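seq/struct pair 1
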Amino acid sequence: MAGLNTVDDPARVHAVVVGIERYPRHSGWDLPGAVDDALRFHKWLRKGGVPEDNIQLLLAPEEDSRRRLEPLTGSGDLVWRPVWTRDEVMDAFTDGLEGRTGDLLYVFWGSHGVLGHDERRLLLCPDASPKDKRCIDTANLMEYLQRDDLDGFAQQVLLFDACATFLEHLHQPTGPAVAAFPTVRRRTVGQFALCAAAPGQVAENDPALRSGVFSHAVMDWLETNAADLRPDLAALLTDVRTRMPGIQSPVSIDVRTLDGSRERLTAPGPAPLPASTGRSRLALALHEAFGDGDLRTRCVEHVTAHCPRAGLGATPSDDRIAHVLLTVERAMAAAVEVVRPRDRQAADRLLALGRADNAPGLLSPLELASLREIFGRAPVLPPMARVIAAVRAAQPFARAWLPPSAEGEPGPTLDQLMACAEHFEAHTGGQSVARPGRQLVPAVVRFTELLAALLPGARRELHEWGDRVADRLGVDTGGLAERRAEALAWPDSLGTGCGHPRVLAQLDVAPPERTAARGDRDSGERFTCVMWVDTGSDGLRQAAEQSGGPLSARDVVRRIKRTVTLLRAATEEPPVVEILLQPDAVHLPVDFWNGADDEDELPLLLGVEWATVLRCAPLASEEVEERRRSELRRRWAARHNDTVVYLDDRHTEGYAAYGALKTKADAARAVVRAGPGGRDRLVQTALKLGYPVVLWDRKSPGPVPDTHFDPVRPAAAVDGLPARVQSYRARACENPAAHTMCPAVLFEAADRPLPEVLPLTGPTEPTAPIASSPSAPPDPAEASS
């Protein structure tokens, strides 16, 4: 990787410099020093001769920083722009670069950050909050900067000082709010990206220096070695890696070199060290641990026997052993198996160094083989039922990889369960705050604890296996006991319920295939779908048939049809179909999806074939969701009264809807009569305030008269409303001119349980914080657990 070239004129250098120090919607995220880092980078550019007009300096300063900026701005020495929204930041890259031309573009960014789906690095914008994580994707930004209508800038250097901590959704199913840059035609551009943290890591901030540790190291090197604005990128990379203090410090992990090749250095645990330094430290630790010659011999023999690729030979040096442990899959885990019974402190040291340098394989070969034997001895493997549904629903990791069941296959194969276990090895967990220095329970052990809860015959063996693995990894026993109690309680937490049988389809829009024509079966939009059934007497359980990947709307209806057919054969009673959607997706016209093939004579309209209602997945905030559930239960208990709250266009201003819905304490349902402009907002308001029944018209082009909903009799018995809506939809097919309504009904029957999902890939307590680190801090729900 050579240094920059053809940058002889500083006037041909441009930059976008971002320092987000204040988050007005959540002051707990304020990041002192981000503005200072941005100003230091700006000063380096100006000292190198870059004109002020070539630099877009975007700052969200705290009050102290704003006061320090005032004299510089007033004297004309500094031009900066306040940015308080995601759109304002994005405008700098869209509109702000229009008409500019040059040889080299710098991007410097300091803010909080998280790791999203598929390890996408997300940068939190100034208007982000815990409930609304507004952000942009670094990979998407880099792709946008390759746009072919951007004149020049064939060389680009991007420096991101932000964390890459895993985003724990828990009860926040909507996840981050990622805004995408416009889709563009791309050209060949040399990009060098340097990021402060490896996957799962915090990027440290030094409160004494008022600077990110990464930014401080980068600027020290640039100011000393690159006064001409042409840094040797390889030397910069090496220096920054070397200067990161301690084995758990953040480092650069992603490099796009200017010759078009790509170097990717990923690590689920602490930061990788430079290869030679990391190996040297491990070799020293091995030398100290192997004071007993017998321990060295046993360790070498054990690793050689179980890791055939090790190739250690008869008398390997400490450096050779260190190299094998850091490069051969599962070799480090095998070595720790031998060291831990003799010297727990030395074993912990080896584990820490292995995580720091990304030693491959969390489980040892013996642990993996033992797990396979336990699964193989289980009399009956669990169906692709509860635990696999939990895995699928654990965002953001599960959807893309889970092995599907074959058609008609009652449950997972042994290989599929092992594939699940090996996948979750990558999510090792962080360090405990409640018990400093102790590792949190890794995802693979959480997964096996869930299986133990569903396999009474194999429970003892799986618990013993989990104990052994947790002990070798230095996991705190109290944390493991808490996770085990959660897993054992989980199968009983679904409740039994009563009443009519039902089929519950848990849907979510598959992220990559969003289209403008929402709900059109031919639009290409795809959905993840997990099917659940309830006979009305034996509780909620997952259906036998599940999808192995995203489905079209038509395929979703087909799967519902097959599940309904099987359930009806068992109960001899037509079930209600419940569609479980995310809170912001209740407007999807799922009840009008057609599952028929184009050549079929008859349609298969979901809401006409079966009584179909919508249900809402839990809201992002646990506190708000608990209030909503409490209100649902109270109003559902009084559902037999005929009090209805009608909401129309008068309620779209201010708090009018809130007041109307709160005034009638005994109302059990709401009917939305507003036009398209305010309809969705009123539905959401009624939903969040815990109304069990919300009825509205999807297609009404404007406000509707008082008699509009009379055909479905919203004031009549609530329990019969789904059937009345179904009947109306059928009549609309018969005579559309006389039945112009497209009724949608949210039917939150409070005594009908929803599927329970446990998080598998992240801690339920926060990892150890570092003062003012540039990352989203732990969710309050995590901290309270």
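seq/struct pair 2
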Amino acid sequence: MSNDGYTRRGVLKTGLGAAAGSLLVTTPAHASPAAGPLKLWYDRPAAAWLEALPVGCGRLGAMVFGGVATERLQLNEDSIWAGGPHDYDNPEALAALPEIRRLVWEDKWQAAQNLADEKFLGKPSEQAPYQVLGDLTLTFPGAAEFTEYRRELDLSRAVTTVTYVRDGVRHTREVFASNPDQVVVVRHTADKPGSVTFQAAFTSPQASSTSSAGRDSIALDGVSTDTQGLKGEVRFRALARARTRGGAVRTDGGTLIVEGADEVTLLISMGSSYRSYKDVGGDPAEVAGRHLTRAGGQPYEVLKRKHVRDYQRLFGRLDIDLGTSEAAALPTDQRIARKQLDTDPGLAALYYQFGRYLLISSSRSPGYAANLQGIWNDSLTPAWESKYTININCEMNYWPAAPANLVECMDPLFDLIKDLAETGARTAATQYGAKGWVAHHNTDGWRGTAPVDFAFYGVWPTGGAWLCLMLWEHYLYTGDERRLREHFPLIKGSVEFFLDTLQTDPRSGYLVTNPSHSPEVGHHEDGGENVSICAGPTMDMQILRDLFGAFGEASEILGVEAEMRAKAADARSRLVPNQIGHLGQIQEWQEDYRGDAALSRSRHISHLWGLFPGHQIDPRLSPDLAAAARRTLELRGEAGAGWSLAWKINFWARLLDAPEAYKRLSNLLLPARTAPNMFDLHPPFQIDGNFGGTSGITEMLLQSHGDQVHLLPALPAAWPAGSIRGFRARGGFEVDLSWSGGALTRGRIRSDLGRRLTLRTGAPVTVTSGGRPVTVSRPEPNVVVLNTHRGTLYDLTPSP
């Protein structure tokens, strides 16, 4: 077998075992095997950043352009942030808080929002940007003409390759970022001895200098920029070292010179002085030098083998086949430009696996959580500072992690939450006079948790609460009580904050947040100003309902905090319920505001949080609310960024509406929303759309909320036949499926935890294990319930 999940005859391995032979799907003869369903490929070099191909190992990233006369490797190290350690909290905020709340109670929204702008925002009111390190440029001598060009990213191995013929010599260049060895590796070979000659040099828009670092190495040293009056304090170093077979290598004033080599291995190492959000006293030269020395002592073949093995341990857990067509033989940019997902189902599968590739590449330990652009950024001032926007975007990055069988990739996010619990405790005390911890709608490398930007966007206190629910999701998928016990203090701290700060609405009697808003959406024009500030918006209530519920369940599982559990349950019962407004929509606010607010076309649809990622709105359990959610989506319209379209895929899938979910996926994969290199476009680039789209495809094929596992719940007509292997479901289940004619033909479920399984299918199924019938109950049509045993496989076939 080849190592990319396919046999030499182009047959997809399903992973369902020998008994699943009927599930094998043969690639049609007219599809080009060279194109490969797990490869992005192109017939020309990248002319722009959004055409370059990303590689990454969590901490390090590079964008590979695949040039011939010059090769540009744009480099990132994930701890390079402008500014330095800083406390964003505003000491004036606490004194202003009672007045802000009073103005909100009296519907004096503009006055409340103005006071929040003046007294409640952090200092400074803007956070720091994530920044580029620089470029390494390889310059090749001779004529620029070339033939037989091909550039690709092999998702099965996480290796980019460019090949071309120049002056009668075939050149091949491979690039990958190694997590085991923490270096970016470039390998250039030629089919004629002595044909590899180039010069390599670093450049950077940062304040920096270049130098030779020995006979075969060059260095780039720099420091991040100042921002918002904060001095840039993150120092960094990049090193590049060449190892050649044949020829010669030398350096001259910071330029690396390779002449007449048969082949060259170039190792790129990066390090910074950033140790944590409060410590930038590290030695970047030591970090970069240590990794370079270790990697430099290993042959290229060993470096590559370790990288591929490490990567495939994660990536190889899951296969997805949605069918193929002649379009699969086209370069990837041409497939996107065709705007014909209906005739290219393999593009959706490629997009799905690309999302998994990006998560593995941008969120691994050691390394920090994936930010708005993952790790890939070529600017000192990227859009939205490439921060962590925690009113949707950061969480969306991790929606596919557990269901797409990459739960380890959540670890850097958990590290971020731990940091925020520390800084957020300071914010809770300073700005609210409260216990516990809080984080608002944005954070950065300095882990700011105070409100930032403007009051219209920033005075939203439930960002930390939402992040805590990601900790709970980890437990729902894994059943890992050790990690739950580790994470429980973070969840408890968030609950403490809200138990301390929730207010009783003098008109409704409900417990509500005040001040807050429905993220980035105004509810009135007040005195000519669009205002968002309010009390008890629907999203807050939905998040807190789930937070208090998760806390209660976790405390019972761990046998702790019984008294606080009762308080949380009481508070949960007093939150504003989901309500249906005058247009038949889910109300976005506690009151049923009319006019422009009810007809907003904002890309944010925060009041459907309870539909997805929550599950408070369910077509089966709450049909009235589900109908109102549908109406909400119709009223909101199609306006929206890539991430917003991605969220809508998930919404429509949860409503079990396959045509509408598929329509949004098709719109997401148009050139206006997906770049030639498959990066999501806001525009510009934001990686959350990639991850949200990956999550949406999962929700179309498998759902596991509400104590049920639902197979093929929103399967579109465009995917009449296919298979999946290795999807994960809540409750500790791993799921393999195949289908034909739009109906399940066979499946296999592995129970990792031995828990009770409620399984919903489109038609009745028979359950066996080891060839023997399994006793099930059938409480309603197309539902089976069975007690599972840990580590046991259960086979599903359509009932006669």
